[in-house]
Here is the input.
Amino acid sequence: MLETDSLEFHYGEAARFVFPDVRCASGETLLILGNSGSGKTTLLNLMALLLTPARGEIRINGTGTTALPLSQLPGFRARNIGLVFQKPYFVNALNVRDNLLMANYFAGNPPDKARVNHLAESLGFSALLDKRITELSGGEQQRVGIARALMNSAKLILADEPTSALDDLNCGRVADLLEAQAREYGAALVIVTHDQRLKSRFPSQISL
Amino acid sequence: MLLKIVWKNIVDKKLNSILAVLLMAFGIGIISLLITVGKQLQDKFAKNISGVDMVVGAKGSPLQLILSGVYQIDSPTGNIALSELNMLRNNPLVKEVIPLSMGDNYKGYRIVGSNEKYLKHFKAELKEGRTFERPMEVVAGATVARNLELKLNDTFVSSHGFEADGHSHEDQVYKVVGILNYSNSVLDNLLVSDLESVWLVHAGHEADGDHHEEAGHEEEAAHAAHEPEVTCALVKFRSPMGLMSLPRLINQNTKMQAALPAIEVNRLFELMGIGMDAVKALAAAIMLISGVSVFITLFNALKERKYELALMLSMGGTRMKLFFMLLLEGIILCLSGYALGILLSRTGLWLASGALKRGYNYTLEQQFLQKEEIYLLFLALFIGIVAAIIPSSGIYKINISKTLANE
Here is the structure.
């Protein structure tokens, strides 16, 4: 599902990153571990097509992405990649339900209310759908973030430090939910983290 | 969905939004009110003037003469002898002389003594009844008839002067013989009789020895001289030549004064215009401030919502789409301000109409959007776009990966 070949990225001359190849098939989970400054966020941004690599190729769902014109990237990303952020990035003026439906809107899909209800139920926040994002706890927000990544049947879920802001209990739950949801929808799941708690949880790992 | 996001963001920033909308509403409201009221007043003034080339009356302020003679809103300047008017009638340059005699009212509505020419001048049509043929018969204007619920054959006694609670002339009773259709002129607010009626009312009151010394009692001289007098006369010329020679002739050689409505009304509007322009400038400044407030609201929004916008971009939103989303926010604020402003202006018009009605028996009509108000709409739109375009274009500077990775 996700394949990268000899990716390189440069922040000027001083900071050059050469990344190991990443492979992740549908329904699988891959953990990318690294400390701060190891370039793991850069790798995530490359895989999320938010940055363009200096060299190398990223194939998502069989499509070579470096050949895609810049104007098609947002649409491709929206349809194929679900992003889970470390921080609770939401549109604060909207309630939980609308934040989820917004993913459909920006991907150019019709609003999938049934999916919202289904995801909210399996991630355990059905009661919170009509609340404002700011009324939710950190763990609740992260679960909504996972649901949002799954709104457009993404083939690839990229999670950036999804658990580092959570306590041990919520860390375990979020990790379980992420894996379960990715598997249910047949998506490849790549978690980029320095969170040692996840190390023992996922066997398939790459260290930077 | 986009509209929903825009709307929710506006509602989320309630205070900022309300400030911007209110400022715009006040600016638009004031300008629109000035435009509509000014326009209607000018229309009314112009309509009543049409055809009247000159007004002659007793010496005094020419503006007062015009206001009292043509518009029936000011006190008359005094009286002139009917015989002096006859001299005018014989002048070959004069087409028509309509004598007017005032002095009484019924419940605040003026009773004007004149002849049928006065009704014809306004192309008045009778809704019912007939025109006055004998003394003490009156034809009621449409507004008067409606407001006082006058019907044919109703009778009333007049009060002296122009205040409803003046001395009553109880020995002479007026009878309504006709009711006019709306002519949208000063006639709507008048009760018109023949000249003799006015003389009769006041002659009778002289016989009682009931002399008044109060100011504005312009009939006094008439009683002494026993010569029929009128308050003023509306004059129409046969040719523009009359305009050139007659006013000077009258002003220099007679005891009368000649005033030209066109000139006096222009003078009046010039005087009013200065005030109106000042208020308009103030309103424009308020609108400008509204624009600045929209600018600040959106500028802050862009800073505060940087992450939200980066998120939307990462979710597949295009920069163009988000640019329009922000632009739309500014436009919606300005347009709601516009709508509220027009509403304010209409409410103001309604209130002003009420005040004018009480003060002058003039009414203003509620109208649909004026041409100038359509221009105002574009102005509001323009302000919204200009105020929003700079903050909105900030969307093109957002670096998605850096913003979202913000460590």
Residues 2-45+269-405 of chain B form one domain. Confidence is low (pLDDT under 50) at residues 206-225 of chain B.
